[in-house]
Specification:
It catalyses: adenosine(34) in tRNA + H2O + H(+) = inosine(34) in tRNA + NH4(+). Its cofactor is Zn(2+). GO terms for molecular function: tRNA-specific adenosine-34 deaminase activity; zinc ion binding. Belongs to the cytidine and deoxycytidylate deaminase family. InterPro entries: CMP_dCMP_dom (IPR002125), Cytidine_deaminase-like (IPR016193), tRNA_aden_deaminase (IPR028883). With 145 residues, the protein is an alpha/beta fold. The chain has a single domain, classed as 3-Layer(aba) Sandwich (Cytidine Deaminase, domain 2), CATH 3.40.140. The chain contains 5 helices and 5 strands, in the order H-E-E-H-H-E-H-E-E-H. Strands 2-1-3-4-5 form a 5-stranded mixed β-sheet. Helix 1 runs parallel beside helix 5. It is globular. The model has no long low-confidence stretch (mean pLDDT 96).
Length: 145
């Protein structure tokens, strides 16, 4: 999670919402990193999780991320939760809960929907206070402008 927090801080420095993500392979090696980059890239899918999973898939040379763990500072939205299911990640680990758009247990629970053919394990609340504080601080400064 510390590496994901570093990515989130880098996103904030670029004026992006501070969300960071990493993908670890089965041995714990980082094979993909990402940070929000929607503003810079003008890409609505430029969420940290998507960026990290794309990098991990390139590193592996295939779209299946079986055996991998997605670690992200904020609970994934429906798009990112769905992408983690489609990528077949084994585990989703996140920090801060997102009661407004979270899709891994808060507002929705996409990853544990029994109708889907793959359901990643979920570990929530890892360094939640630190992850949440980074987001809160960003939005306080943004509102002051």
């Amino acid at each position: 999670m510390r590496r994901a927090l570093d990515e989130a801080r880098a996103a904030a420095a670029d004026g992006e919402i501070p969300v960071g993500a990493v993908v670890l392979d089965g041995s714990g090696t980082v094979i993909g990193t990402g940070r929000n980059d929607r503003e810079r890239s003008a890409d609505p899918t430029g969420h940290a999780e998507i960026v990290a999973m794309r990098a991990a898939a390139r590193a592996r040379g295939e779209w299946r991320l079986s055996g991998c763990t997605l670690v992200v500072t904020l609970e994934p939205c429906t798009m990112c939760a769905g992408a983690s299911v489609q990528a077949r990640v084994d585990r989703v680990v996140y920090g801060a809960v997102d009661p407004k758009a979270g899709a891994v247990g808060s507002l929705w629970d996409v990853v544990r929907d029994r109708r889907l053919n793959h359901r990643p394990e979920v570990l929530a609340g890892v360094l939640a206070a630190e992850c949440g504080a980074l987001l809160s601080e960003f939005f306080v400064h943004r509102r002051v402008r």
